Each structure stands twice: as structure tokens, then as C-alpha cells.
């Protein structure tokens, strides 16, 4: 190997530079993901502190995650178009630095309504990384490196989500709102500086040949966005299979993420009386979802998507029902089942969208993530009346109703899948 490098030093240097760029890109975007999800899910771990600081009911504090997810959902569509125009790196870094500014502003918030507005703004900024990351990987990495990048990036998502909740819950025991947000600001600043250092400059063309005419037309007319930019969205929304996949992802996330919010309120009340940090430990049940994501591709190939979708739905329903036994053990088992079923559905839907969309794949993924986070946003207001009238039993009832609609969507999408397979076989 050494002799080959000595005889072709330039080739070895290029290979080393390429590998270095790929490693820097993978870790840069993964660290950016950790920063994003710490900031997104922080509030879910500090609901009691928010309620005390801003003098609101703890149940109302759960709406902070809903408004952030709502803004994030629609901002994903904006970034899907913007990054095709001006590149991946610039909007991603600008959004991260503006996120730091919004964290700084959090230190001076005195009213809950002002906090809601700031979290709405943050939702728009947090969308940049998830909207751009996979397109960034696809632009810059080889197919082999893409598989590695996807695994590390998804793991980083989980780490960021768990870390945000546990860090927030732990610090809220000993710190005030201002002190806690100061720590989050410093952690985020440290992460953003590393991301800025790691992300390499672009060397490949910004767009594919299929999008080049649209980009050139936009440049000539000096317009950042054109009506034709939305053709991809219309194309995918016109596909009945994709519409149902979007619905499945949104409903599954509606149930899962908001159950984790309301179970904290339940565990902090009698007879459990858990403390601020203790209730955040329930988020460790997310780890069963990491396992589901890891094995999802293998199991789909072996057993088929339809069969495993139904199994995942059964796990989510069973997990919700098991929590009604209302002991710590059964609640933990229930959430392990729910998280496992949800993450299997999510990872499967995400891959299915990319496989189904032959054109405008970035926009197809953006639409899926839009529905995904819109589900999280609508889940809080949807489940709130169930919680207020019947407590945790009401949340389970509302979840079962949503999962029943999800079951209908699974039946419809798998029926379309069977028809597609039959048509291909006939032809």
C-alpha cells in the first residue's frame, strides 16, 4: 500500500482529503442535530420549572412543544427550496447562529406569552438542520458513506432528544430559569462553533441536471422562489400512497411524543409523586426505539412492510393500554412498547418516502417531516381535553382513537401497495 502511495502520491492525497471531508461532514451535521434536538425537547424535561417561573398550569406548559413543532413543520418546506437555491451550508449555519440569539433572548423573557412567541420563532430556526441534512449527505457522500452517515445521524437525533430532556430535568433541580438557559446557551454555542469548524466548503455542483433549468430560470428573473418550486410538493401530495404515508407518520408521532408529555404530569401527581428529575427518566424508554430503527430495514426485507406495520401498530396500542394498570413497572413496559412501535413506523415511513419518490425527493422528505412535526404540534391541543376531563385514562382513550385512524391509513396504503405489485407482475 505504501509503495502505491509513493508512486501515486497525488492520488493518495486526494483519497485522504475526500475521506477527511466525509468524516467532517458526517460529524458536523450529527453534532448540529444534537444541538437542534436538545433545544427542541428541552422544554419537555422542564415543564414544572416553566410552570413555576411563568405562573401557568403545567398542562399549559406542554403547549410550548406544540407551537415549536408547528413552526418547525412548515419551515421545513421553506428550507427544502432555499437550500436548492443558495446551498446547504449557508442557511444551516445562519439558522444555528440565529438559534443562539434566540437562546440569549430566552434569558430576558418575563411573560409566558413572550416565551410562546420565542419558541414559535425557534421552531422556524430548528427546521434547517433536519430539512437540509439528508440532501447535504446525498450531495457530498458516496453511496457507501451515505449508509454510515445515516446511521450516525439518526443516532445523533436520539442522543439530542434524550439529552435535552435529561439535562433540562437534572438542571431544573438546582437552577432557576435564567441559570438553566445560560447553560443551554453555552452548550449550544460550543456545539455551533464545532459545527462551523467541521462543515467543509462545497466542491460539487449545487443541483442535479433535472433541477438545473428551474434554478437558471430563477437566477435570470432574480427571484429566489418561483411557482415552479412548488410543483414537487403538488406532485407528491397527488400520490395517494404518499399521502397515507404522511398521515401514518404524523399520527404516530402525535400519539408518542405527547404521551411522553402527559405521563410526566401523571407521575408527578398522587400516588407516584415523582420529582422533577425522576419524571425525565421515563424518556430512557426511547432507547427501545433506537433498537427498532436499527433493525427495521432487515425486518422489512425478511417479513414485508405490511406485516410489520401491523405489528408496530399493535405494539403502540398494547403499550398505551398496558399503562392503564397504573404501576411504575407497567407504565415503563407500556412506553417501551410504544416507543419501539413508533420508531419502527417512523424509520420505515422515512425510507418508504425516499423509495417511492422518483423526482423531487428532497421535497418528498420535507413533506413527510412537515406532517411528522405537525402531528406533534396538534397532539398537545388534541389530547389536552382528554387529560383535563379524565386524566391519564383520557390520554390513553384519545391515543387509541388516533391509532384507529392510523390503522385505517395503514390498511389503505398497504392495499395500494398490493395493487402496485399486482400491476407490475401483470406487466
Commentary on this structure:
The protein is an all-alpha fold and 427 residues long. It has one domain: MFS general substrate transporter like domains (Growth Hormone, Chain: A, Up-down Bundle). 84% of the residues lie in helices and 0% in strands. The protein has 18 helices and no strands. It has helices at 2-7, 9-45, 47-54, 58-61, 63-86, 89-106, 112-126, 128-140, 143-171, 177-198, 209-220, 231-237, 240-268, 276-280, 287-303, 305-322, 328-356, 361-426. Helix 2 (9-45) packs antiparallel against helix 5. It is globular. Residues 205-215 and 217-222 have low confidence and may be disordered.
Layout of helices and strands:
Elements: H1 2-7, H2 9-45, H3 47-54, H4 58-61, H5 63-86, H6 89-106, H7 112-126, H8 128-140, H9 143-171, H10 177-198, H11 209-220, H12 231-237, H13 240-268, H14 276-280, H15 287-303, H16 305-322, H17 328-356, H18 361-426
Helix pairs in contact: 2-5, 2-8, 2-9, 2-10, 5-7, 5-8, 5-18, 6-7, 6-8, 6-10, 8-18, 12-18, 13-17, 13-18, 15-16, 15-17, 16-17, 16-18, 17-18
